[in-house]
Design goal:
Blueprint (H helix, E strand, L loop, with lengths): L6 E3 L3 H6 L6 E6 L18 H15 L3 E11 L4 H9 L3 E9 L16 E8 L17 H6 L9 H5 L6 E3 L19 H11 L5 E4 L6 H8 L3 E5 L3 H12 L9 E3 L1
Parallel strand pairs: 1-8, 1-9, 2-3, 2-7, 4-6, 7-8
Antiparallel strand pairs: 3-5, 4-5
Helix pairs in contact: 2-3, 6-7
Bound molecules: S-adenosylmethionine (SAM).
The site of S-adenosylmethionine has 21 residues, from helix 1.
């Protein structure tokens, strides 16, 4: 397996993932095309509903055997297709959470025949009940004022009061606007804050994260920053280069990234 690690495969994920060993990855972070016609420099987001759902089922069937028994999957979706995709995944995995990523999009007028949609629906699924989950790694510190206010006896000496609280299932993190320091040239780049929380909670230190649809490489960057390895696929060669650049800019990248075409 080690020859796969920390490599960007510039190819179709369905063909590439099929070559990975079964039960070899700890975590899959999947951010597939949304089925909404976005331009990724290819036709990957231009399928009609039936073809899109058939394609989703196809890659899911290839990806899931790659997870270890203790492994999990996070998948980014929109409200349009999350019901169908959740049904596919629930047939094979335990659903742990539905996470709402509130992108904190500012109000701008927008839709006049419906409410403005400002969230991604993220499914968190586990392969078995014995899945890896490190809550302490992702707790959110209480502020001093809140700590002081917790004077009732049930709070006294409570470990979590010092360690912080369990993040809720609504994650309110601003999308990366054009001027954001993390922003790379990719239309649906995800914030590191979100991906790093998934990596720290659901991949053991030194473990392996699989990203079938790398885009700008946020998962790879998060994995390396958190001391994990990655393996990933991306169709667009320009994005593969972008991922290389982002990884090369990391302060002390333990190994030089490599792209395979
Ligand atoms: C939603 S974006 C991923 C964004 C990424 N999470 C980030 O933070 O930058 C989906 C990406 O999947 C790529 N893609 C689509 N179909 C693919 C396939 N069959 N194999 C590999 N990559 C694919 C697209 O080119 C696009 O860059």
């Amino acid at each position: 397996m080690s020859e796969w690690l920390n490599r960007i495969y510039c190819e179709d994920a369905l063909a590439g993932m099929a070559r990975l060993e079964d039960a070899s990855v700890d975590l899959i972070i999947a951010d597939p095309p949304y089925g909404l016609g976005k331009d990724y420099g290819n036709d990957s987001d231009k399928l009609d509903t039936d073809a899109y759902l058939a394609w989703m089922q196809q890659w899911i069937d290839i990806a899931l055997p790659k997870l270890k028994a203790s492994g999990s999957l996070y998948i980014f979706l929109t409200w349009r297709y999350s019901p169908e995709v959740f049904v596919m995944l629930k047939a094979r995995m335990t659903m742990v959470n539905e996470i709402i990523w509130d992108r904190r999009v500012p109000s701008m007028g927008g839709s006049t025949r419906r409410f403005s949609s400002v969230h991604d629906t993220v499914g968190f699924f586990a392969k078995s009940r014995d899945y890896h989950f490190d809550l302490d790694a992702v707790r959110i510190p209480y502020d001093e004022q809140t700590k002081k206010a917790r004077t009732r006896s049930i709070f006294v000496g409570a470990k979590w009061l010092e360690l912080g609280y369990n993040p809720k299932d609504v994650w309110s993190v601003s999308r990366l606007h054009r001027e954001h320091r993390e922003r790379a040239d990719h239309p649906t780049q995800k914030p590191l804050e979100i991906i790093e929380r998934m990596v720290k909670a659901s991949c053991p230190p030194g473990g392996v994260v699989l990203d079938p649809f790398m885009g700008s490489g946020t998962t790879a960057v998060a994995a390396r920053r958190c001391g994990r390895s990655f393996v990933g696929f991306e169709l667009n060669p320009a994005y593969c280069e972008l991922i290389q650049q982002r990884l090369a800019e990391l302060p002390a990248a333990p190994t030089a990234p490599e792209t395979v075409s």
